[in-house]
């Protein structure tokens, strides 16, 4: 039975890797795309908090947690998202399957843990049509249709190091290499005009950022633990190598008529810098090890300083972003031999995000409710590998001011497999 579960997950992951769209959100038009979840499925189901770490799971948000690893952990996550896009006059539904992360973490001895892998950062996948009218020379009106579409994504290849300085204090750092390509296309068609206009812009982006974490987890009253965490994800100075083509196309056939390369170097836009501001996260939690945990985190980012000179957007501005998340888990009895479900980990959480985007003078906020289970792959007590199944229900945006409200339902599936590396043989 367990082998069948693992095979099914691997097949599902392969489908996700080949069929993923990343996003279909119209809000991916702004900035550098739609921010993807950066946590493992286990942490996502606790509202996305990263304060908690243990010896058998990878924590992608908190590199200090690698100092707690005692086993080698292979981890992967995939997701299915059903999205309903609502305006004041229309509704549309879409589905997305994504491979969310691949990671490996292991202990190299004496409280030192190492991890590496790849995970998504942002995704672009929008198709927006805007209709208006223009006044002709003879005072008649013609319809004007502007179509905006975009595809692409940014990913992070990361290397993490965590060290347990003392039993209660640990420190960690993650180096992220960001890379990817984003394409933004705009076409314009005017009624009764034979040719349309096209503006095609491509950005090839890469650069580094670092995530530092400090955890202090002292024991309280013997069996309880107080969890405190401070994390700083430094400003990412990304380099964008840009190209732009403009020209015309036939409205009858869609074929390009004349396309020319724009001299971006003369305008100072050949290579631009995208500065993603520093994000600071503070966390506090309390719990009984292998029994229950409850924690909360607050994150803030000076996003008001962000701009993209190559892709200006008239109706967009930024303010400082923030996020509040609360979540936890409960295990009835992880040592139970008689009941499998007593060894299941039950997780739940909630998060509220002020994204920092102001579109049409309206704040774009997000609310998500998460819950799920961690299912041991071993049929007996003492096994560490597990499948993590989670769900998220949420809403982002609003239908006010001609905007789009997104209602989504997400299913997450994660696999965490444990092994032993770097163990000295006691008997040859």
Describe it.
- There is one protein chain.
- The protein is mainly beta and 428 residues long.
- It has one domain (34-69, 108-373).
- 6% of the residues lie in helices and 60% in strands.
- The protein is built from 3 helices and 20 strands.
- It has helices at 2-19, 41-44, 264-267; strands spanning 34-35, 72-86, 91-109, 112-135, 141-164, 169-190, 195-216, 219-220, 224-233, 236-250, 256-261, 271-276, 279-288, 292-301, 316-318, 321-330, 345-359, 362-376, 386-397, 405-419.
- The protein has a 14-stranded antiparallel barrel with strand order 2-3-4-5-6-7-9-13-14-16-17-18-19-20.
- 36% of the residues are buried.
- Residues 1-20 have low confidence and may be disordered.
Structure described in brief:
The protein has 428 residues and is mostly beta strands. The protein contains 3 helices and 20 strands.
Low-pLDDT windows of residues:
1-20
Helix percent reads: under 10%
Strand adjacency order, main sheet: 2-3-4-5-6-7-9-13-14-16-17-18-19-20
Overall body shape: elongated
Order of helices and strands: HEHEEEEEEEEEEHEEEEEEEEE
Number of helices: 3
Mean pLDDT over the residues:
90
- Give a count of the beta strands, DSSP E runs of length 2 or more: 20
- Indicate the radius of gyration in whole angstroms: 24 Å
- Number of structurally distinct domains: 1
**What proportion strand?**
over 45%
Distance between the termini: 34 Å
Biggest sheet layout = 14 strands, antiparallel, barrel
Structural class: mainly beta
């Amino acid at each position: 039975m367990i082998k069948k579960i693992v095979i099914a997950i691997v097949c599902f992951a392969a489908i996700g890797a080949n069929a993923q769209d990343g996003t279909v959100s119209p809000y991916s038009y702004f900035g550098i795309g739609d921010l993807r979840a950066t946590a493992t499925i286990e942490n996502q189901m606790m509202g996305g908090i990263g304060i908690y770490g243990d010896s058998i799971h990878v924590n992608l948000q908190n590199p200090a947690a690698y100092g707690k690893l005692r086993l080698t952990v292979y981890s992967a996550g995939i997701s299915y998202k059903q999205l309903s896009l609502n305006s004041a006059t229309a509704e549309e539904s879409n589905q997305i399957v994504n491979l969310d992360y691949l990671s490996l973490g292991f202990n190299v001895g004496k409280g030192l843990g190492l991890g590496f892998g790849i995970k998504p950062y942002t995704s672009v996948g929008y198709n927006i049509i805007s209709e208006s009218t223009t006044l002709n020379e003879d005072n008649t009106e013609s319809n004007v249709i502007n179509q905006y579409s975009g595809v692409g994504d940014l990913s992070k290849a990361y290397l993490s190091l965590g060290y347990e300085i003392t039993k209660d204090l640990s420190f960690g750092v993650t180096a992220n290499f960001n890379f990817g390509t984003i394409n933004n296309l705009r076409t314009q068609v005017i009624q009764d005009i034979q040719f349309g206009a096209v503006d095609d812009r491509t950005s090839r982006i890469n650069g580094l950022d670092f995530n530092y974490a400090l955890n202090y987890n002292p024991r309280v009253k013997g069996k309880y633990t107080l969890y405190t965490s401070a994390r700083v994800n430094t400003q990412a100075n990304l380099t964008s190598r840009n190209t732009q083509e403009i020209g015309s196309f036939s409205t009858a056939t869609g074929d390009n008529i004349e396309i020319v390369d724009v001299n971006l170097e003369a305008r100072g836009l050949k290579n631009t810098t995208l500065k993603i501001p520093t994000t600071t996260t503070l966390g506090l939690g309390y719990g009984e090890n292998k029994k229950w945990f409850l924690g909360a985190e607050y994150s803030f980012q000076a996003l008001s300083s962000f701009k993209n000179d190559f892709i200006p957007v008239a109706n967009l501005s930024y303010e400082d972003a923030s996020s509040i998340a609360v979540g936890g888990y409960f295990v009835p009895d992880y040592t139970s031999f008689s009941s499998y479900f007593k060894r299941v980990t039950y997780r739940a959480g909630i998060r509220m995000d002020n994204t920092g985007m102001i579109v049409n003078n309206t704040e774009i906020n997000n609310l998500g409710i998460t819950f799920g289970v961690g299912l041991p792959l071993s049929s007996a007590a003492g096994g560490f590998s597990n499948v993590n199944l989670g769900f998220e229900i949420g809403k982002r945006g609003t239908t006010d001011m001609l905007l789009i409200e997104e209602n989504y339902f997400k299913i997450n599936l994660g696999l965490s497999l444990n092994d032993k590396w770097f163990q000295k043989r006691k008997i040859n």
